[in-house]
Amino acid sequence: YAELLDDLKNAEQNARGVFLKIDSPGGYASGNTEVARAFATTKLPVVVHAKGYCCSAAYAIASGANYIFANSDTLIGSIGTILPLLDVSDMWEKLGVKPDYITNRDGILKASGMPSQSGIEREALRLETESFFELFKNHVLKYRNIPSEAMQGQAFVGLKALEKNLADGIRGENAAYEKLQILTSRR
């Protein structure tokens, strides 16, 4: 994310527009809000061309662009958050490893995410995941009119993404770049 912010800062000082090529299944929720907001609020015109994937955190960044274009076979969306956890407790048990965590007295949630979670720890992680989702959803809805049924974690291919307003057109990279040239010629 820091590299994207540096690139945007450089563009704001030296360019007339931003052409953001995206091919990403997503990324981390933490830090994404700042990057997504920076691209959405820059005074430069921003045109996105998505090839392959523009999902999850990558879509959050794209959503504030002036235009999002994609190839007909690009997978777009995946508006949701996930906290992947692996339950390795059976494997550890077979290896004779028994995890033991010592936290401060009031740190009843400090071991959340570790094997053998309690119900309260699991709920705390769910609430954390919901908080990140609310940030994501609110950012997207500020810049795009997307129906709630298209914000359940699924992604859409090409024309279906266009139908759900996740993209503005199905265009190749050159045609998308031409749109940026039109926008920057007016400046």
**Strand fraction:** 15-25%
Please state the overall shape, judged from the principal axes of the Cα atoms.
Answer: elongated
**Largest pleated sheet:** 6 strands, mixed
- Rg computed from alpha carbons, rounded to a whole number of angstroms: 20 Å
Spell out the blueprint of helices and strands:
Elements: H1 2-14, E1 18-24, H2 32-41, E2 46-55, H3 57-62, E3 67-70, E4 75-77, H4 89-94, H5 119-143, E5 155-157, H6 158-163, E6 169-170, H7 173-185
Parallel strand pairs: 1-2, 2-3, 2-4, 3-6
Antiparallel strand pairs: 4-5
Helix pairs in contact: 2-5
What is the compact description of this entry?
This protein has 187 residues and is an alpha/beta fold.
Question: How would you portray this structure in words?
Answer:
This protein has 187 residues and is an alpha/beta fold. 42% of the residues lie in helices and 16% in strands. The chain is built from seven helices and six strands, in the order αβαβαββααβαβα. Strands 1, 2, 3, 4, 5 and 6 form a six-stranded mixed sheet that branches. Helix 2 links the parallel strand 1 (18-24) and strand 2 (46-55). Helix 2 packs parallel to helix 5. The longest helix is centred in the last third of the chain and has 25 residues, at 119-143. The protein is elongated and about 65 Å long. It starts with a helix and ends with a helix. 27% of the residues are buried. The model has no long low-confidence stretch (mean pLDDT 91).
